């Protein structure tokens, strides 16, 4: 058994807007061996495409415009997601822009490693975080929030 087999399973949420789905699929293909080691979540269409393209199980949530971004945001707040890959579209307005902003906001609040482009996604997958020696939940915001509850 190689040391890579000992990697802890992370919970990865993966999302892409329509104009960036091809780029995401390309990235996912290039990283299929790494992705296969983790638990994958995706918004409706992204999740379906990933599942079919990679032949890996993906836990599918609602499509983004129907609430999928909000579902992932809730999972982040409940500490049920470890990392977000979100290829959002910087060139086209989305009908559910408030949901997108809310998801990006919660990722910052909860100090979730988040990649919005391929370069950062590559850095995240090759980072020590994937080997488990980074405590993502240590954030001033979560300390603040927990004190308030
Ligand atoms: O709209 C999305 C994220 O904001 C993604 O939704 P789909 O994966 O269903 O296309």
Automatic annotation (TrEMBL):
Q: Which UniProt keywords apply?
A: Lyase
Extract the GO molecular function terms from the UniProt entry.
methylglyoxal synthase activity
A GO BP annotation: methylglyoxal biosynthetic process
Using the record's annotation, list all stretches that form the MGS-like domain.
5-149
| Keyword hit for Lyase | yes
Its catalytic activity?
dihydroxyacetone phosphate = methylglyoxal + phosphate
The protein's matches in SMART domains, at most eight in alphabetical order, are given as: MGS
Q: What is its EC number?
A: 4.2.3.3
What role is this protein assigned?
A: Catalyzes the formation of methylglyoxal from dihydroxyacetone phosphate.
- NCBIfam families in UniProt: MGSA, PRK05234.1
Q: What is this protein called?
A: Methylglyoxal synthase
Q: Give the source species.
A: Persicitalea jodogahamensis
Biological classification of the source: Bacteria, Pseudomonadati, Bacteroidota, Cytophagia, Cytophagales
Q: Which gene encodes it?
A: mgsA
């Amino acid at each position: 058994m190689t040391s890579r087999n000992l990697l802890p399973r992370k919970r990865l949420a993966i999302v892409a807007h329509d104009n960036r789905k091809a780029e995401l699929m390309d990235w996912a293909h290039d990283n299929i061996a790494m992705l296969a080691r983790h638990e994958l979540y995706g918004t409706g269409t992204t999740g379906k495409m990933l599942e079919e393209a990679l032949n890996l199980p993906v836990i599918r949530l609602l499509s983004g415009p129907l609430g999928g971004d909000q579902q992932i945001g809730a999972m982040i707040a409940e500490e049920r997601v470890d990392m977000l890959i979100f290829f959002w579209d910087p060139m086209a307005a989305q009908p559910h822009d408030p949901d997108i902003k809310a998801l990006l906001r919660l990722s910052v609040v909860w100090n979730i490693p988040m990649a919005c482009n391929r370069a950062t996604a590559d850095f995240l997958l090759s980072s020590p975080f994937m080997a488990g020696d980074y405590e993502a939940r240590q954030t001033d915001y979560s300390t603040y929030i927990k004190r308030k509850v």
